Every structure is written in C-alpha cells, then in structure tokens.
Amino acid sequence: MRLSTWARGRGVPDRAGVVRLSVAGLWVAALALGALVGSNLAGMQGGFVVNTAQTLVPLTLVAAGLVTLAAAMMRHWALATVAGVVVVGHLVLVMPALGPASTPVSGAEVETGRLRVFSANLHFANPDVGPIAREIVGSDANVVALQEVTETHLASLRAAGVVDMYPHTLLDPRSGGFGSAILSKTPVTDARVVDLAGVPMSRATLLVGDRPVELFNVHTMAPVGTQRLAARDRQLDALALMSRADSAGPDGDDPRAHIVVGDFNASRWHPAFRRLLDLGGLHDAHEQAGRGLARTWPNESLLPRFALLDHVLLSPTVSAVAVREATGEGSDHRPVVADLRVR
C-alpha cells in the first residue's frame, strides 16, 4: 500500500495536501498583512487590535518578506507577487524612519544654539525614582521634561538634589498618570500647565541664546480600549494644530523654534502620529539621528521592547545632533536624551 493512500485513509493529508494547506495559509497571511499596511497607508485608525498591529510594522515587514520568500520557493508566482506588493507597502511606511546618522557630541555644550533634553516617563506606580534621578544628574541635560510625576516622585527628586540643579522649574505633580514637570538650566520666560483635549500637559518658553524656543511636555492617553484610543488620537490631532500655530512666526517670517517631547503612546506607524508630524511641520529626532527603529517600550517587562513611544519632535529650525535612550530603572518606558541645535 502506498504511504499517501494509507495517509488519506487515516485522514492525514498527503504531500500535495500539505502544499495546498501551506499555500492557503500563506495567502491568509499575505492578505492579512496587506490589509494592515493598506489601511495604515490610507490613514485608517482602526480599533485596539489594529492599533497594536500598527505598532509592529517593522516586524510585520519581516513577516511579509518571509511570505514572499516562501511563495517564491514554492514557485507560486501569483502569491509571491501579492506578497511582494505588501512588502513594498511596508517599506513605504518604514523607510522614513531610516534617516541619515549624525555625529554625536560630547558634553552638554551650552553655547548659543546647543541644547540637551532629557525626557522620562517616571511611571506613577514607581516607588523609587532614585535611579532615574541619578541618570538625570549624569546626563548633564539643560532641560528635563518628566511625565507621570507624583508628589512622592517630586520629594525623591528634591532629596537627590535634582530640583536644586535647575533654577527654572514648572512642577505639576498629580496622582495617577498625568502629573508633569519641566526643569531647566536655560532661562524660561513663560511656563504653564494647559489642557489639551482633556488632559493636563506642561509647556515653557525657553531662551536659548537670544532665541525663544517653545517646549511642550507631552503625555497622551494610553490607547487601551476604544475610548482611550480615540482620546489619544484627539490629543495628537490637537498637538498637530498647536504645533502648527506655535511654529509660525509673525507674517510667516522667522518661524519660531518648537520642541514637542515626551510619551506620545504612539509611533510613526500610527496614522494620527503621522498627521502630527505632517500637519505640525515636525520631524523626529530619532529619525534625524539615524535611530528611527529604536525602542523605548515596554521597559523592565517580560516582553521585549518593540515600540518607540517616547519622542523628541522638532520644528525645522531645530535639528538633532545625537539621540540615545537611558536605562529608566523602575519605569515602564526608557528615557530619551537628545542633543539638539537651534538655528
């Protein structure tokens, strides 16, 4: 008795059946990945599952490449063509993150136009921000933007001497996840807490040399559930309009320098974040420094880090010289340290 006949008799697919099942599975994968990238390119928001899948675009690019390779090896050219188109769509999304690398600088040079920014989500449930306080001190940053700041955190930062290092401060500790702080060695001409689509955030006008620089400290809603996802997107859209207005100089001349920094709970592969970049006239410091595929979340988790949710976004008159991530012990996000130049 031939093996294939015996296998069919016992309900086990023969080699041809295995091939058919494999091709069917590859078609399902190609079409699912195509729907993901197509909806993303079309700017469709989707729900929580789609939002999560959009975060994984660099990984789904790899998956689409593997589907294309498998189809080609099986000489299933229709499938290979479709999967190849999906790969191209992914590349359209991913390529802007791969900017040219810049040359790092050493030390926080404070001559006119140079600024080092340290941004960290402290995590409201973090019982000990001492390690992050030490990272702030070691960073020698000119400006520190903190999110999820509580009264307990602020007491620890004072005890560690961090607050005393910065003569210009805006401190807005709160219970829960929406306290914030801006600490600056650079002179500040204005600082205030504002409501952005229902969430308090802090902002300040820095004087870098003789140039005013608008700094906005961001923490959007975590997109867990339909309502919170919609709230995050509203906040990103509001940020886009605010950035567009803040970056415009009088009569369109001499545009103002503008920095939007913090925990955006979004990446380039979310349509609302791309709208922020495009409408707000902003570019991502990570991308400009050639590190657009860096990852800051989740930190200290059983899951590997897979998302860049913490950003330093810059108007055209500000450029990134170098960007790195700190350790962020005790937080679920890694801090970001960016060396910037104001032109």
Q: Compute the CA-based radius of gyration.
A: 24 Å
Provide the CATH topology of the largest domain: Deoxyribonuclease I, Chain A
The number of domains is 2
Largest sheet composition: 6 strands, mixed
Task: Tell me the CATH architecture of the largest domain.
Answer: 4-Layer Sandwich
Ends: how far apart? 81 Å
> What is the structural class?
alpha+beta
Q: Give the strand tally.
A: 12
Tell me the name of the CATH class of the largest domain: Alpha Beta
Give the topology:
Layout: H1 3-9, H2 15-41, H3 48-55, H4 57-73, H5 77-94, E1 114-121, H6 130-139, E2 143-147, H7 151-159, H8 162-165, E3 168-172, E4 180-184, E5 188-196, E6 199-208, E7 211-219, H9 226-247, E8 257-263, H10 271-280, E9 283-284, H11 285-288, E10 310-314, E11 318-325, E12 336-342
Parallel strand pairs: 1-2, 7-8
Antiparallel strand pairs: 1-12, 2-4, 3-4, 5-6, 6-7, 8-10, 9-10, 11-12
In short:
This protein is an alpha+beta fold. 40% of the residues lie in helices and 23% in strands. The chain folds into two domains: 3-97, no CATH class; 114-342, Deoxyribonuclease I, Chain A, CATH 3.60.10.
Task: Please tell me about this protein's structure.
The protein is α+β, with helices and mostly antiparallel strands. It has 2 domains: 3-97, no CATH class; 114-342, Endonuclease/exonuclease/phosphatase (Deoxyribonuclease I, Chain A, 4-Layer Sandwich). The protein has 11 helices and 12 strands. The protein has helices spanning 3-9, 15-41, 48-55, 57-73, 77-94, 130-139, 151-159, 162-165, 226-247, 271-280, 285-288, and strands at 114-121, 143-147, 168-172, 180-184, 188-196, 199-208, 211-219, 257-263, 283-284, 310-314, 318-325, 336-342. The strands form 2 sheets. The chain has a 6-stranded mixed beta sheet. A 6-stranded mixed beta sheet has the order 5-6-7-8-10-9. A hairpin with a 2-residue loop joins strand 5 (188-196) and strand 6. Helix 2 (15-41) packs parallel to helix 5, helix 4 (57-73) runs antiparallel to helix 5 (77-94) and helix 9 (226-247) packs parallel to helix 10. The longest helix is centred in the first third of the chain and has 27 residues, at 15-41.
